[in-house]
Amino acid sequence: MTAAPITLPRWADAGLVPLVSVAAALVVAGLVVIGIGESPLEATALLLRGSLGSAEGLAFTLYYTTNFIFTGLAVAVAFHAGLFNIGGEGQATIAGIFAALACLWLAPLPGILLVPLAILAAAAGGALYGFIPGWLQATRGSHVVITTIMLNFIAATLLVYLLVEKIGKPGSMQPETPDFAKHAILTPMHQLLAPLGVTLPATPLNSAFLLALACLVAVWALIFRSRLGYAIRTTGANPRAAAYAGISPARITMVAMAISGALAGGLAVNEAMGVQHRLVLDFTGGYGFVGIAVALMGRGHPVGVALAAFLFGILYQGGAELSFDKPTITRDMVVVIGGVIILFAGALDGLFRRVVASGLRLGRVL
Protein backbone atom coordinates (compact mmCIF):
# COMPACT_ATOMS: atom_id res chain seq x y z
CA MET A 1 0.00 0.00 0.00
CA THR A 2 1.48 3.34 -1.07
CA ALA A 3 1.72 6.03 1.63
CA ALA A 4 -0.23 9.21 1.02
CA PRO A 5 1.92 12.08 -0.23
CA ILE A 6 2.87 14.68 2.36
CA THR A 7 1.48 18.11 1.52
CA LEU A 8 3.15 21.13 3.09
CA PRO A 9 2.64 24.88 2.68
CA ARG A 10 5.05 26.29 0.12
CA TRP A 11 6.92 28.33 2.74
CA ALA A 12 7.44 25.23 4.89
CA ASP A 13 8.52 23.04 1.98
CA ALA A 14 10.93 25.63 0.59
CA GLY A 15 12.30 27.00 3.85
CA LEU A 16 11.55 24.91 6.91
CA VAL A 17 12.34 21.43 5.58
CA PRO A 18 15.87 22.36 4.36
CA LEU A 19 16.49 24.24 7.61
CA VAL A 20 15.52 21.21 9.70
CA SER A 21 17.66 18.88 7.56
CA VAL A 22 20.69 21.18 7.88
CA ALA A 23 20.17 21.47 11.64
CA ALA A 24 20.01 17.68 11.96
CA ALA A 25 23.16 17.29 9.86
CA LEU A 26 25.00 19.78 12.06
CA VAL A 27 23.91 17.88 15.16
CA VAL A 28 25.35 14.68 13.69
CA ALA A 29 28.53 16.55 12.75
CA GLY A 30 28.72 17.87 16.31
CA LEU A 31 28.59 14.33 17.66
CA VAL A 32 31.48 13.38 15.37
CA VAL A 33 33.50 16.35 16.66
CA ILE A 34 32.77 15.31 20.25
CA GLY A 35 33.89 11.79 19.38
CA ILE A 36 37.39 13.03 18.50
CA GLY A 37 37.65 15.04 21.70
CA GLU A 38 36.92 18.55 20.44
CA SER A 39 34.22 21.03 21.37
CA PRO A 40 31.51 21.39 18.67
CA LEU A 41 30.70 24.91 19.86
CA GLU A 42 34.31 26.00 19.53
CA ALA A 43 34.57 24.30 16.14
CA THR A 44 31.43 26.07 14.93
CA ALA A 45 32.73 29.42 16.16
CA LEU A 46 36.03 28.88 14.33
CA LEU A 47 34.22 27.83 11.17
CA LEU A 48 31.99 30.92 11.17
CA ARG A 49 34.86 33.23 12.08
CA GLY A 50 36.98 31.84 9.27
CA SER A 51 34.23 32.24 6.67
CA LEU A 52 32.38 35.37 7.80
CA GLY A 53 34.52 37.01 10.46
CA SER A 54 36.75 39.07 8.17
CA ALA A 55 36.61 40.75 4.77
CA GLU A 56 39.08 38.23 3.40
CA GLY A 57 37.15 35.26 4.75
CA LEU A 58 33.87 36.60 3.39
CA ALA A 59 35.42 37.21 -0.03
CA PHE A 60 36.68 33.63 -0.20
CA THR A 61 33.25 32.41 0.90
CA LEU A 62 31.59 34.38 -1.90
CA TYR A 63 34.14 33.03 -4.37
CA TYR A 64 33.10 29.48 -3.51
CA THR A 65 29.46 30.57 -3.50
CA THR A 66 29.84 31.80 -7.07
CA ASN A 67 30.81 28.33 -8.28
CA PHE A 68 27.98 26.71 -6.37
CA ILE A 69 25.42 29.15 -7.76
CA PHE A 70 26.35 28.24 -11.33
CA THR A 71 26.33 24.49 -10.75
CA GLY A 72 23.25 24.61 -8.52
CA LEU A 73 21.28 26.53 -11.14
CA ALA A 74 22.42 24.07 -13.81
CA VAL A 75 21.02 21.14 -11.84
CA ALA A 76 17.88 23.08 -10.85
CA VAL A 77 16.85 23.88 -14.43
CA ALA A 78 17.15 20.21 -15.34
CA PHE A 79 15.16 19.25 -12.22
CA HIS A 80 12.27 21.43 -13.33
CA ALA A 81 12.17 19.49 -16.60
CA GLY A 82 12.14 16.17 -14.73
CA LEU A 83 15.80 15.49 -15.58
CA PHE A 84 18.72 14.61 -13.33
CA ASN A 85 21.77 16.30 -14.80
CA ILE A 86 24.87 15.05 -13.00
CA GLY A 87 27.12 16.06 -15.86
CA GLY A 88 27.96 19.53 -14.59
CA GLU A 89 31.64 18.62 -14.24
CA GLY A 90 31.90 17.52 -17.87
CA GLN A 91 29.87 20.45 -19.16
CA ALA A 92 32.05 22.90 -17.23
CA THR A 93 35.17 21.16 -18.57
CA ILE A 94 34.07 21.58 -22.18
CA ALA A 95 33.03 25.15 -21.40
CA GLY A 96 36.54 25.78 -20.07
CA ILE A 97 38.06 24.45 -23.28
CA PHE A 98 35.84 26.72 -25.38
CA ALA A 99 36.61 29.74 -23.18
CA ALA A 100 40.36 29.05 -23.28
CA LEU A 101 40.37 28.73 -27.05
CA ALA A 102 38.47 32.01 -27.35
CA CYS A 103 40.89 33.79 -24.99
CA LEU A 104 43.94 32.43 -26.85
CA TRP A 105 42.74 32.71 -30.44
CA LEU A 106 40.95 36.05 -30.10
CA ALA A 107 43.62 37.73 -27.98
CA PRO A 108 44.18 40.55 -30.53
CA LEU A 109 40.64 41.80 -29.87
CA PRO A 110 40.11 44.52 -27.25
CA GLY A 111 38.93 43.37 -23.84
CA ILE A 112 35.49 44.91 -24.25
CA LEU A 113 34.89 42.37 -27.03
CA LEU A 114 37.13 39.52 -25.95
CA VAL A 115 35.68 38.97 -22.47
CA PRO A 116 32.01 38.78 -23.57
CA LEU A 117 32.95 36.53 -26.49
CA ALA A 118 34.88 34.20 -24.20
CA ILE A 119 31.94 34.05 -21.77
CA LEU A 120 29.59 33.29 -24.66
CA ALA A 121 32.02 30.62 -25.88
CA ALA A 122 31.97 29.00 -22.44
CA ALA A 123 28.17 29.06 -22.41
CA ALA A 124 28.07 27.60 -25.92
CA GLY A 125 30.50 24.79 -25.00
CA GLY A 126 28.52 23.89 -21.90
CA ALA A 127 25.24 24.08 -23.80
CA LEU A 128 26.54 21.79 -26.53
CA TYR A 129 27.75 19.23 -24.02
CA GLY A 130 24.45 19.43 -22.16
CA PHE A 131 22.45 19.16 -25.39
CA ILE A 132 24.10 15.84 -26.33
CA PRO A 133 22.63 13.77 -23.44
CA GLY A 134 19.33 15.64 -23.84
CA TRP A 135 19.23 14.68 -27.51
CA LEU A 136 20.17 11.08 -26.72
CA GLN A 137 17.34 10.76 -24.20
CA ALA A 138 14.80 12.53 -26.40
CA THR A 139 15.57 10.60 -29.59
CA ARG A 140 17.22 7.36 -28.50
CA GLY A 141 15.82 6.74 -25.02
CA SER A 142 19.28 6.81 -23.42
CA HIS A 143 18.80 7.86 -19.81
CA VAL A 144 20.36 11.23 -19.08
CA VAL A 145 21.92 10.03 -15.82
CA ILE A 146 23.94 7.35 -17.58
CA THR A 147 25.01 9.51 -20.50
CA THR A 148 26.06 12.46 -18.35
CA ILE A 149 28.21 10.16 -16.18
CA MET A 150 29.92 8.80 -19.28
CA LEU A 151 30.36 12.25 -20.80
CA ASN A 152 32.06 13.49 -17.62
CA PHE A 153 34.87 11.00 -18.17
CA ILE A 154 35.08 11.78 -21.87
CA ALA A 155 35.42 15.50 -21.15
CA ALA A 156 38.14 14.91 -18.55
CA THR A 157 40.09 12.73 -20.99
CA LEU A 158 39.70 15.28 -23.78
CA LEU A 159 41.02 18.03 -21.50
CA VAL A 160 44.14 16.00 -20.69
CA TYR A 161 44.77 15.28 -24.36
CA LEU A 162 44.40 18.91 -25.41
CA LEU A 163 46.58 20.27 -22.62
CA VAL A 164 49.33 17.73 -23.22
CA GLU A 165 49.27 17.48 -27.01
CA LYS A 166 47.63 20.54 -28.55
CA ILE A 167 47.22 23.73 -26.52
CA GLY A 168 49.64 23.23 -23.64
CA LYS A 169 52.14 25.89 -22.63
CA PRO A 170 55.42 25.32 -24.50
CA GLY A 171 58.24 24.25 -22.19
CA SER A 172 55.98 23.77 -19.18
CA MET A 173 56.02 20.52 -17.25
CA GLN A 174 52.46 21.20 -16.09
CA PRO A 175 49.43 20.39 -18.25
CA GLU A 176 48.17 23.95 -18.70
CA THR A 177 47.62 26.52 -21.42
CA PRO A 178 49.67 29.69 -21.78
CA ASP A 179 48.46 32.54 -19.58
CA PHE A 180 45.56 34.50 -21.03
CA ALA A 181 46.14 38.09 -22.12
CA LYS A 182 45.62 40.61 -19.33
CA HIS A 183 42.57 42.06 -21.08
CA ALA A 184 41.01 38.57 -21.29
CA ILE A 185 40.67 38.02 -17.54
CA LEU A 186 37.81 39.07 -15.27
CA THR A 187 38.29 42.01 -12.94
CA PRO A 188 39.05 41.03 -9.32
CA MET A 189 36.41 42.30 -6.94
CA HIS A 190 38.88 44.29 -4.84
CA GLN A 191 39.83 46.27 -7.95
CA LEU A 192 36.22 46.61 -9.06
CA LEU A 193 35.12 48.11 -5.73
CA ALA A 194 38.18 50.29 -5.11
CA PRO A 195 36.80 53.28 -7.10
CA LEU A 196 33.71 53.16 -4.87
CA GLY A 197 35.83 53.55 -1.77
CA VAL A 198 35.42 49.93 -0.66
CA THR A 199 38.70 48.35 0.40
CA LEU A 200 39.01 44.58 0.11
CA PRO A 201 42.06 42.31 0.29
CA ALA A 202 43.16 40.51 -2.85
CA THR A 203 41.20 37.25 -3.12
CA PRO A 204 39.91 34.98 -5.92
CA LEU A 205 36.54 36.77 -5.80
CA ASN A 206 35.97 38.49 -9.14
CA SER A 207 33.26 39.92 -11.36
CA ALA A 208 31.96 36.40 -12.12
CA PHE A 209 30.09 36.80 -8.83
CA LEU A 210 28.01 39.54 -10.45
CA LEU A 211 27.41 37.25 -13.42
CA ALA A 212 26.20 34.54 -11.02
CA LEU A 213 23.74 36.98 -9.42
CA ALA A 214 22.48 37.94 -12.89
CA CYS A 215 21.99 34.25 -13.68
CA LEU A 216 19.89 33.84 -10.53
CA VAL A 217 17.53 36.55 -11.74
CA ALA A 218 17.55 35.23 -15.32
CA VAL A 219 16.70 31.68 -14.25
CA TRP A 220 13.89 32.93 -12.00
CA ALA A 221 12.43 34.91 -14.91
CA LEU A 222 12.86 31.96 -17.27
CA ILE A 223 11.32 29.27 -15.06
CA PHE A 224 8.54 31.23 -13.38
CA ARG A 225 7.75 34.11 -15.72
CA SER A 226 8.09 32.80 -19.28
CA ARG A 227 6.23 30.47 -21.61
CA LEU A 228 9.32 28.31 -22.01
CA GLY A 229 9.62 28.03 -18.25
CA TYR A 230 5.98 26.98 -18.00
CA ALA A 231 6.61 24.33 -20.65
CA ILE A 232 9.68 23.11 -18.75
CA ARG A 233 7.78 22.84 -15.46
CA THR A 234 4.79 21.17 -17.11
CA THR A 235 7.01 18.61 -18.81
CA GLY A 236 8.78 17.90 -15.54
CA ALA A 237 5.50 17.48 -13.66
CA ASN A 238 3.71 15.31 -16.24
CA PRO A 239 5.16 14.66 -19.71
CA ARG A 240 1.93 13.06 -20.95
CA ALA A 241 -0.12 16.07 -19.91
CA ALA A 242 2.46 18.35 -21.53
CA ALA A 243 2.20 16.42 -24.80
CA TYR A 244 -1.61 16.60 -24.60
CA ALA A 245 -1.31 20.37 -24.21
CA GLY A 246 0.80 20.62 -27.37
CA ILE A 247 4.21 20.78 -25.67
CA SER A 248 6.92 18.53 -27.10
CA PRO A 249 8.63 16.73 -24.20
CA ALA A 250 11.51 15.78 -26.53
CA ARG A 251 12.16 19.40 -27.48
CA ILE A 252 11.91 20.57 -23.87
CA THR A 253 14.35 17.84 -22.78
CA MET A 254 16.95 19.03 -25.26
CA VAL A 255 16.39 22.73 -24.54
CA ALA A 256 16.47 22.29 -20.76
CA MET A 257 19.68 20.27 -20.89
CA ALA A 258 21.30 22.85 -23.17
CA ILE A 259 20.37 25.65 -20.75
CA SER A 260 21.63 23.55 -17.86
CA GLY A 261 24.97 23.00 -19.59
CA ALA A 262 25.31 26.70 -20.39
CA LEU A 263 24.83 27.56 -16.71
CA ALA A 264 27.44 24.97 -15.71
CA GLY A 265 29.78 26.85 -18.04
CA GLY A 266 29.76 29.69 -15.53
CA LEU A 267 32.02 27.56 -13.35
CA ALA A 268 34.63 27.61 -16.13
CA VAL A 269 34.27 31.36 -16.50
CA ASN A 270 34.91 31.92 -12.80
CA GLU A 271 37.82 29.50 -12.52
CA ALA A 272 39.63 29.89 -15.87
CA MET A 273 39.02 33.57 -16.60
CA GLY A 274 38.62 34.87 -13.07
CA VAL A 275 41.05 32.91 -10.91
CA GLN A 276 43.58 30.78 -12.80
CA HIS A 277 43.89 33.06 -15.86
CA ARG A 278 44.67 29.92 -17.87
CA LEU A 279 43.18 26.47 -18.31
CA VAL A 280 44.49 23.80 -15.94
CA LEU A 281 43.60 20.23 -15.07
CA ASP A 282 40.83 19.55 -12.55
CA PHE A 283 39.75 23.17 -12.40
CA THR A 284 36.17 21.99 -11.79
CA GLY A 285 37.21 20.76 -8.33
CA GLY A 286 34.07 18.72 -7.65
CA TYR A 287 31.85 21.82 -7.71
CA GLY A 288 29.56 20.19 -10.26
CA PHE A 289 28.65 17.38 -7.89
CA VAL A 290 28.10 19.72 -4.94
CA GLY A 291 25.71 21.62 -7.22
CA ILE A 292 23.36 18.63 -6.97
CA ALA A 293 23.10 19.15 -3.20
CA VAL A 294 22.71 22.90 -3.68
CA ALA A 295 19.77 22.37 -6.05
CA LEU A 296 18.17 19.80 -3.75
CA MET A 297 18.45 22.01 -0.67
CA GLY A 298 17.25 25.04 -2.62
CA ARG A 299 14.21 23.15 -3.93
CA GLY A 300 15.18 24.23 -7.44
CA HIS A 301 14.26 27.86 -6.74
CA PRO A 302 16.92 30.50 -7.45
CA VAL A 303 16.52 32.04 -3.99
CA GLY A 304 16.96 28.64 -2.35
CA VAL A 305 19.91 27.89 -4.62
CA ALA A 306 21.58 31.15 -3.58
CA LEU A 307 21.13 30.39 0.13
CA ALA A 308 22.31 26.79 -0.22
CA ALA A 309 25.31 27.92 -2.30
CA PHE A 310 26.20 30.41 0.44
CA LEU A 311 25.95 27.65 3.06
CA PHE A 312 28.37 25.43 1.15
CA GLY A 313 30.62 28.43 0.59
CA ILE A 314 30.74 28.86 4.36
CA LEU A 315 31.56 25.17 4.80
CA TYR A 316 34.34 25.26 2.21
CA GLN A 317 36.04 28.40 3.46
CA GLY A 318 35.31 27.92 7.15
CA GLY A 319 36.36 24.29 6.91
CA ALA A 320 39.76 25.27 5.54
CA GLU A 321 40.30 27.70 8.41
CA LEU A 322 38.97 25.17 10.92
CA SER A 323 41.38 22.45 9.80
CA PHE A 324 44.24 24.95 10.10
CA ASP A 325 43.30 26.03 13.64
CA LYS A 326 42.28 22.55 14.76
CA PRO A 327 44.54 19.96 13.07
CA THR A 328 42.53 17.12 14.62
CA ILE A 329 39.55 18.27 12.54
CA THR A 330 40.91 17.59 9.10
CA ARG A 331 39.55 18.91 5.80
CA ASP A 332 38.24 15.41 5.14
CA MET A 333 35.98 15.73 8.17
CA VAL A 334 34.54 18.93 6.73
CA VAL A 335 33.85 17.00 3.52
CA VAL A 336 32.03 14.43 5.66
CA ILE A 337 29.89 17.20 7.14
CA GLY A 338 28.97 18.32 3.64
CA GLY A 339 28.20 14.71 2.75
CA VAL A 340 25.88 14.37 5.73
CA ILE A 341 24.04 17.53 4.67
CA ILE A 342 23.69 16.10 1.16
CA LEU A 343 22.39 12.81 2.60
CA PHE A 344 19.85 14.54 4.81
CA ALA A 345 18.72 16.99 2.12
CA GLY A 346 18.39 14.25 -0.50
CA ALA A 347 17.88 10.67 0.60
CA LEU A 348 16.21 11.57 3.92
CA ASP A 349 14.09 14.41 2.56
CA GLY A 350 10.87 12.45 3.09
CA LEU A 351 11.73 11.87 6.76
CA PHE A 352 12.18 15.57 7.47
CA ARG A 353 9.03 16.42 5.53
CA ARG A 354 7.15 14.13 7.91
CA VAL A 355 8.83 15.75 10.91
CA VAL A 356 7.86 19.23 9.71
CA ALA A 357 4.31 18.10 8.88
CA SER A 358 3.94 16.59 12.37
CA GLY A 359 5.28 19.77 13.95
CA LEU A 360 2.84 21.94 12.02
CA ARG A 361 -0.10 19.72 13.02
CA LEU A 362 1.00 19.85 16.65
CA GLY A 363 1.30 23.63 16.43
CA ARG A 364 -2.26 23.94 15.12
CA VAL A 365 -3.56 21.70 17.94
CA LEU A 366 -1.82 23.78 20.60
Chart the SSEs and their pairings:
Layout: H1 10-35, H2 40-52, H3 55-80, H4 88-105, H5 111-140, H6 144-166, H7 189-193, H8 208-225, H9 227-237, H10 239-244, H11 249-276, H12 287-297, H13 302-325, H14 331-345, H15 349-365
Helix pairs in contact: 1-14, 1-15, 2-3, 2-13, 3-8, 3-11, 3-12, 3-13, 4-5, 4-6, 4-11, 4-12, 5-6, 5-11, 8-9, 8-11, 8-13, 9-11, 12-13, 13-14
Number of helices: 15
H/E order of the elements? Answer: HHHHHHHHHHHHHHH
- Range of strand content: under 5%
What sort of overall outline do the alpha carbons produce when their principal axes are compared?
globular
Which structural category do the helix and sheet elements fall into?
mainly alpha
Q: What is the terminal-to-terminal distance?
A: 32 Å
**Cα-based radius of gyration, to the nearest Å:** 21 Å
Parts with pLDDT < 50 across at least 5 consecutive residues:
none
Query: How many beta strands in the DSSP annotation?
Result: 0
Instruction: Report mean pLDDT, rounded to a whole number.
Output: 90
Helix content: over 70%
The major sheet is characterized as: none
Index terms:
mainly alpha; 366 residues; 15 helices
Written overview of the protein:
By secondary structure, this protein is mainly α. The protein has helices at 10-35, 40-52, 55-80, 88-105, 111-140, 144-166, 189-193, 208-225, 227-237, 239-244, 249-276, 287-297, 302-325, 331-345, 349-365. It has a domain at 69-291. The longest helix has 30 residues, at 111-140. It is globular, with a radius of gyration of 21 Å.
